Amino acid sequence: MKGSRVAIRYAKALLATAQEKKAVDQVATDMEAVYTTLGNSHELKAVLDSPVISAELKGETLKAIFAKSSSLVKTFLALVADNNRAAHLDGIALKYKQLYQELQGKQEAHVTTAVPLTPALEKAVMEKINTLTDKKVELVSTVDKDIIGGFILRLGDKQFDASVSNQLQSLKHKLSNRKALA
Asked: Is residue 86 within 8 Å of residue 80, measured between CB atoms?
């Protein structure tokens, strides 16, 4: 991730300040809005990434877009812009979200399937996840037809790949190794 050191430092500083001011939940809501907005607006991301646009203009842009945010977040966004770190804002927001989830004893699990999850399948996946962790888990589901079937589950830094495409790749690798040995 681009600027991960910067993201970690700024996110930790923001979390510490939010804890001090007892505004952790409000800041989490605001930073989720920042992350979502940046993810949905390629134009805004291009403005923040541009070395040609001044830090002052970036700060004014963030101030206008996130005018409904808490005063702590508005001050933080101005600080990020003033320090020429606006290009890292998406990473900072994501890292804050992760730190907030850790603080709450929560964790995100990402499951990728070839077809949308049915409620029954989602329940089965959640039961499996609950055997792997004791944290409260939020399931994020993605559909990717390229995996053909099965699923890919990411939980923290662990990944379980039970996709058909992975099994086919594994079989192809085994067969090509046998040819080489023959």
From this structure: yes
